[in-house]
Specification:
The protein is mainly alpha-helical. The chain has one domain. Helices cover 85% and strands 0% of the residues. It is built from two helices and no strands. Helix 1 packs antiparallel against helix 2 (42-66). It is elongated, with a radius of gyration of 17 Å. It starts with a helix and ends with a helix. The model has no long low-confidence stretch (mean pLDDT 92).
Length: 68
């Protein structure tokens, strides 16, 4: 692999990590907003669960990418 290909691959990985971190933060904000509802509806409770699963999946993906 040439040096330019390595640099390009590193930049692509950095961009992907940055985007995943932003998405993780957005999900965290959405979860916090829903959790601050005093009496969440069953739909809101379900949405919280789904958002937490999605957030965990992103966290796992981030950890995998950062450890490689």
């Amino acid at each position: 692999m040439e040096a330019t290909e390595k640099v390009e691959e590193t930049l692509n990985l950095d961009d992907e990590l940055t985007n995943l971190k932003k998405e993780h933060a957005v999900l965290d904000e959405k979860i916090l907003a829903l959790e601050n509802i005093r009496f969440p509806s069953p739909e809101e409770q379900q949405q919280i669960k789904l958002l937490k699963k999605e957030k965990l999946a992103i966290k796992t993906q981030l950890e995998t990418m950062e450890n490689n």
